[in-house]
Automatic annotation (TrEMBL):
Molecular function GO terms recorded: metal ion binding; oxidoreductase activity
Entry keyword set: Iron, Metal-binding, Oxidoreductase
Similarity-based family: Belongs to the iron/ascorbate-dependent oxidoreductase family.
Alphabetical list of Pfam families matching this protein: 2OG-FeII_Oxy
Keyword Ligase applies: no
Residues making up the signal peptide according to the UniProt record: none
Originating species: Aegilops tauschii subsp. strangulata
Residue ranges constituting the Fe2OG dioxygenase domain according to the UniProt record: 38-144
Protein name, entry field: Fe2OG dioxygenase domain-containing protein
Amino acid sequence: MLREMLDAYIGQMVSLAELLAECMSLNLGLDGGLVRDTFTPPFVGTKVAMYPACPRPDLVWGLRAHTDAGGIILLLQDDVVGGLEFFRGDREWVPVGPTKGSRIFVNIGDQLEVMSGGAYRSVLHRVAAVAEGRRLSVATFYNPGADAVVAPAATARQPAAQLYPGPYRFGDYLDYYQGTKFADKAARFQAVKELFGSRIPHD
């Protein structure tokens, strides 16, 4: 029963992610199927995380600041205990309060930033430890398959897009990301451009 419920939930999350991807593509004047076609077959994973109460939250983080490697992340977070924070405008950390009514929090990963040439940005975020209560979150990741080739879209190749790597295999990016998850994103993009940029011919 639990397996069937989880499979049904993930199926709905995939449908939502593909709808969001279509809307984001169309908003940039791109073909609505661009993200879906690039990601196909997508890698979809769901992670359930529980953050216990911490007696000294001033000394540790529940999860250090990072951006997500993939595409679209759909988060069903705790409706009682907060802790999620995102960095806004290179100025301040903004807390995301407990989410009531089973609302879904949408986050964008590095691959959509690359594909959009920076029109959409992957958001730096972290999870603060809390002294009271346990925080539960369920995150569904809609990511490219390992062999998906990612690059700034043709119509996104304005000067700003030259800052981004591509074309490259997502699997190569993910391998590099594993060791640089908590490092500077711009430096990671530059390193991926230098390491993998010559492996796949440009159009």
